[in-house]
Amino acid sequence: MNSLASLEDSICQLIARYDSLQQELQTLKSENRQQREEILRSHAELQTLRTNYNRLQTAASMLGDKDQRDRAKQQLTYLIQQVDKAIEILRKE
Q1: Residue 64: CB partners within 8 Å, gap ≥ 6?
Q2: Are the C-beta atoms of 63 and 69 separated by less than 8 Å?
Q3: Which of 22, 62, 64, 73 could form a disulfide with 68 if both were Cys (CB 3.0 to 4.6 A apart)?
Q4: In the 3-class helix/strand/coil scheme, how is 27-80 assigned residue by residue?
């Protein structure tokens, strides 16, 4: 009779352990799914950042160095002054 009770106890322990492992498996699957989604979001963000970085590099290369920017600014200032003079002349007429 003891061996039958012992066997029954062992089976109950195995079933309890099985249920516990099933719950742990479900938890791990859920965590895995969340981490995969986070990886996909991070990958998308990384792609966006790379695209923005490439755009910034392109814009910076188009701007040129500081001397070129200063010359462009001087030319724009000169052109604005010329337009202002032309407007002033037109007003006087």
Answers
A1: 72
A2: yes
A3: 64
A4: HHHHHHHHHHHHHHHHHHHHHHHHHHHHHHHHHHHHHCCHHHHHHHHHHHHHHH
Question: What pLDDT does residue 61 have?
Answer: 66
Residue whose structure tokens are 């062992």: 10
- How confident is the model over 56-69, as a mean pLDDT? 75
55, 49 in Cβ contact below 8 A?
no
> Could you identify the residue written with the tokens 């030319």?
75
φ and ψ at 23, to 5 degrees?
Answer: -65, -40
Query: In what helix (H) or strand (E) does residue 24 lie, and over which residues does it extend?
Result: helix 2-63
- pTM equals 0.53
Residue 79 token pair: 């052109």
Q: What 8-state DSSP symbol labels residue 14?
A: H
Q: For the segment 67-77, what is each residue's pLDDT rounded down to a tens digit? A: 877 787 888 88
Expressed as residue numbers, the domain containing 37 is 2-92
